[in-house]
Amino acid sequence: xxxxxxxxxxxxxxxxxxxTATGDKIQILNVNTKKIVQxxxxxxxxAIYEADVSPDxxxxxxxxxKNMQSDLYLYEIETGKLTQLTxxxxxxxxxxxxxxxxxxxxxxxxxxEKQEIxxxxxxxLTRDIFTFNIETGEIVERTFENYDCFSPIWAEDGSKLVFxxxxxxxxxxxxxxxxxxxxxxxxxxxxxxxxxxxxFDDSYIVISxxxxxxxxxxxxxxxxxxxxxxxxxxxxxxxxxxxxxQTIDLTRLDYYGKxxxxxxxxxxxxxxxxxxxxxxxxxxxxxxxxxxxxxxFSWDDKPDSIxxxxxxxxxxxxxxxxxxxxxxxxxxxxxxxxxIDLTLSDLMGNYGIGISLGISGKIEDSNxxxxxxxxxxxxxxxxGVYNFYDETLYRRYRIGQDDYxxxxxxxxxMLFIYRYPFSRFTRLEFDSQxxxxxxxxxxxxxxxxxxxxxxxxxxxxTDTVIAPxxxxxxxxxxFGSTGPMVGWRxxxxxxxxxAKNELNYFTNYLDLRCYNFFEKRYSLAxxxxxxxxxxxxxxxxxxDGLYGVRALNEDIDGxxxxxxxxxxxxxxxxxxxLAFPVPLQLRNIRGSIFADxxxxxxxxxxxxxxxxxxxxxxxxGYGFGPRLNLGYFVLKFDIAWLTDLSKISKPMYYLxxxxxx
Length: 661
What we know:
The protein is mainly β. It is 0% helix and 54% strand. The protein contains no helices and 42 strands. The chain has a 16-stranded antiparallel beta barrel. Strands 9-10-11-12-20 form a five-stranded antiparallel sheet, with no helix packed on it. Strands 1-2-3-4 form a four-stranded antiparallel sheet, with no helix packed on it. Strand 17 (193-198) and strand 18 (204-211) form a beta hairpin. It is elongated.
């Protein structure tokens, strides 16, 4: 992303280019209110780079891409009129208005003398400084070098140009009298300069410089005093003699088969030395120093002739591992559960394979999902097969002692998947499931509770179901080390089943998440889940688990559900060092304070959220815990309490290997 900040004359607004889901835009920000006051879209351009505001604040000059060319454009803010200033295949960048608004300084590519050793097709291109007369359209070349000169800045009321140059193979500032052509060196930073600017009255200069392992901003005053100018080339009117692509021999891209790279040796081999005692004579670098040799690129020159035509084999699809993710969780209520996700794809990214395995208890009672996707086109499509197993425990309250029912549900099926993206962040998903489901009910009598002697299969039902679903997805969240920190995630699903027997349902489900990065390294996260299912056999939603109401120690489900969560995510320990019993260093341990509130019920008439000032069907949990990114997974430890607003439960402990929601 190439961008630049530019102030308006009122010193209250700045303009800069950004990338969005609907294309590049220019944003105008009020620095006092910290709000975007105007967003400028230019549909004619495929990309927008650096932009600069005119001295009167009425125009923008910008570097933009259109039809695979990066040229300069003049944009009138009030009317939206766009005028193209340059038109060639050479890259134009970093435009800046002169103080009087009559000229534009910028840098652009041009052909220089070819180097003795060829580095590539574009090896003879360097950047120089140019000015554009807005009234006449005349272009004047100001520098004529075989090294890059770029990022011009106007100084001394427009009589001078300050620019970065690689004169000594490091980016430093030079100053140029744009009328006489005289030049002088302005800075000599041994680490080079990334960017910088000079104040309007030439009193101060700021630069960004990499030093001691970090990028920092440096400041100096009176940068233009005591400068010694030297004679240089005189400015010349400039007209492109040819286009970039006309100067390149594209036949050099022809494929002539593989060739072994020739080893480049120095002319004189140095004697073997003790690496602990390097030998340097006459204060010069040892000739064996590889940094003193150019790499030999002659091995990839085009052959003079072809004796045997090369054999070019057809592309073969071979899958390789893209990612692997695993999670392991334990709570004092649900016990231990684990999951692993694998994704594989071919070299061209035409096909993808996904494998998800959830292990809980016995292997035959685990969950498995396998999918194959065709990713060649904008729309993705594929198939999948799965085996899901779930157990739900119900307690029936009776006078004296309660009894229990257990529902064991197995689902075996396949599905068709179709995904169409509208943008990088938004897509529409369609899937159609065909599955066989078996439901088995077990009974535990009161007298058998101590021994857990279940009466198996007191009732058994099977059915075959077709269930198409349509979902809308939006996701522009940006992640931190342990989970999302800024952005939105939105998922809305509707699904209707058509069953052979009685498993007919119609389901609506919503998952909305918002992340607010309100301070450096601090974020607020909010989540809202809601679902409703109707029909002969509606689907059921539950509140338990790591992504439900934490601290809930009972199974609560229903045909209707709503769940809300809020988290404050913050830095906990930047650095933790343990010396005993084993030396251990831990960095960037983050923390979270959270609260979860939700409810699940069947009939609205039976719902009792609050009774006598106490929470009844509404469940509320809260807690805190640290998080640590271990590279392949996130280690979390949560302590949570449940409350009905009159009393607080004993703490529940959750240890998991999964990222924040």
